Amino acid sequence: MLRRSNPHEDQGVAVDLDLNLYRREVTVVDGEPPVRLSAIDVAPQAIQRTLVFLHGFGGHALQWAPQLQALAAENRVIAIDLRGHGLSDCPAGPYDVNTLVTDIERALRALDVERPFVLLGHSFGGALAALYAYRHPQDVERLVLVATAARLRLHRGLEWVFRLPAPFLERVRRVLKRHFFAPARVLKSMYFEAMCRWDGDQVFPALDQPALVIQGHRDIVFPKGDYRRVARLLPHAEEVIVPVSAHLVQLERADAVTRAIRRFLTPVPLSWRDATSHTAPLTAERPWVRFYDPGVPATIVVPDQPLHRFLDGAVRRFARRPALRFEGRTISYKAFEERVNRCANALLGLGVQQGDRVALLLPNVPQFAIACFGAWRAAAVIVPVDPRLPDDEVHRLLEMADARVLVALDDQAERAADLWPLRRTGDRVLVLTGRGDEVGRMGWRGHHRLDEVDNVIRWHEWLSAAGYARPRLRIAPDELAAILLTGGTTAPPPEE
Q: Which pLDDT tens digit goes with each residue over 261-299?
């Protein structure tokens, strides 16, 4: 969705990004089980700076959503869910400051973040940002601390709540789940292992980076004096007090916080004559860009994700809404994902490996979408083949694809076996399905000579025997996903 911008306002992203499409998983602990963090990573073509955002105690990455949206047109923006928070893994522990900072170090390495970058932290995330800058001064160009205090001890009444046993604290958290995005055991461990031990008086005076301190005028989560000392302790700090705001100032007064960050990163031009557009380098090769409305980006950032990951965000947001409609029946996103995961695990159970081809001799039926996403989750490559093509063309395409698995309708069974002969070695598998299998309409299935062949299997039995947990495979965004063989209407597809 595009929106018109006032040319006198700060220029931000004019396209509302679905930030969940830009999520990536990064492994910070290789073990059994591993620890993975979820990170939002948006990178435009022309990057001015890299901005790394850290949320606070009990928060999550999307608490920086307004700033991510506004600053992503010109900068690479990264927001990380800390361990135990948001969509990151929740290991048993530890949750001390050293572990959390080490997680950040490893996540930035895995994300291949170019140094130096700007580090922004909210509340306890500000403490982690300051400690990271203290340990890696050459990595951090500038520091932005929002609602961060020199000490992070809660008022006595609130601290008493965190002394409750974890099961009782979890009941309290569920009542306040809009404010806490981590389980009670994580909150309890992090508060006593990390927050209570934070001492900004030791860290802030040693920082040499330019720093911006943003505080909410009505923030009473920590004592006022602990907030005020931050700017005085930092050697090169400027302070901004945002009126009519409390602890989540970056959400409560998003525009004011974003303006303060912009001014801190890039000095405001004295007049319109001094202003320059981030689209300027592109106007030579794309002259139409100069006619864009103010605030409209010259390019749209394409999420750097493998295709199957887009399903994850859809399931989180629309679990009960229809994903597929077929012959009067619907399949929800949650049910669709379960079928996709079963299909992926079933393919892996057949020995399908990364880069193996899965051919789909199917019309528009739910099995096509399930097999498509299932193959992607198994790191396989799909090869769609139109069953309406003549036999010689289907045979040629299937042989060109060199597929390990072929999925076809029952009424195509004999044809599929003739055009794609099953080998005695068993390295080819034919999966047969009925048109209404996925909507509860099995229909009539004729008997044919393939009923007793070992490497011919039925769709429902195949999926039912597979697990529904999502396979955890590392699939790079630039891996081959599909081979689309087409010659249009006037010629056959070219040979590889």
A: 999 998 655 443 444 454 555 667 778 877 877 767 677
Dump pLDDT digits (tens) for 88-122. 999 998 999 999 999 999 999 999 999 999 999 99
Mean predicted confidence (pLDDT) in 9-15? 45
- Domains located in the chain, CATH noted: 19-291 (3.40.50.1820), 309-464 (3.40.50.980)
Taking the C-alpha atoms of residue 395 and residue 401, their distance in angstroms, rounded to an integer, is 10
Using alpha carbons, select from 61, 228, 50, 197 the residue that is nearest to residue 131.
Answer: 197
Each residue's pLDDT tens digit, 449-470:
555 566 889 998 899 999 989 9
Place of tokens 């901004």: 240
CA distance from start to end of the chain? 40
Q: What is the pLDDT of residue 493?
A: 61
**pLDDT at position 112:** 94
Integer Cα distance of 373 and 391 in angstroms: 27
Sorted by sequence, the CB contacts under 8 Å of residue 303 that are 6+ apart come out as 21, 22, 310
Write down the pLDDT at residue 442: 55
Map the chain to HEC letters.
Answer: CECCCCCCCCCCCCECCCHHHHEEEEEEECCCCCEEEEEEEECCCCCCCEEEEECCCCCCHHHHHHHHHHHCCCCEEEEECCCCCCCCCCCCCCCCHHHHHHHHHHHHHHCCCCCCEEEEEECHHHHHHHHHHHHCCCCEEEEEEECCCCCCCCCHHHHHHCCCCHHHHHHHHHHCCCCCCCCHHHHHHHHHHCHHHCCHHHHHHHCCCCEEEEEECCCCCCCHHHHHHHHHHCCCEEEEEECCCCCCHHHHCHHHHHHHHHHHHCCCCCCHHHCCCCCHHHCCCCHHHHHCCCCCCCCCCCCCCCCCHHHHHHHHHHCCCEEEEECCEEEEHHHHHHHHHHHHHHHHHCCCCCCCEEEEECCCCHHHHHHHHHHHHCCCEEEECCCCCCHHHHHHHHHHHCCCEEEEEHHHHHHHHHHCCCCCCCCCEEEEECCCHHHCCCCCCCCCCCCCCCCEEEHHHHHHCCCCCCCCCCCCCCCCCECCCCCCCCCCCCCC
pLDDT digits (tens, 9 = 90+) for 328-343: 899 999 999 999 999 9
Tokens for 433? Answer: 């399905």
- The pTM of the full predicted model, rounded to 2 decimals, is 0.79
pLDDT at 271: 43
- The side-by-side arrangement of strands in the sheet containing 429-433 is 381-384, 357-361, 405-409, 429-433, 456-458
Over the chain, what is the mean pLDDT?
A: 86
- Sign (positive or negative) of CA dihedral 238, 243, 248, 250: negative
Residue with tokens 């530890």: 94
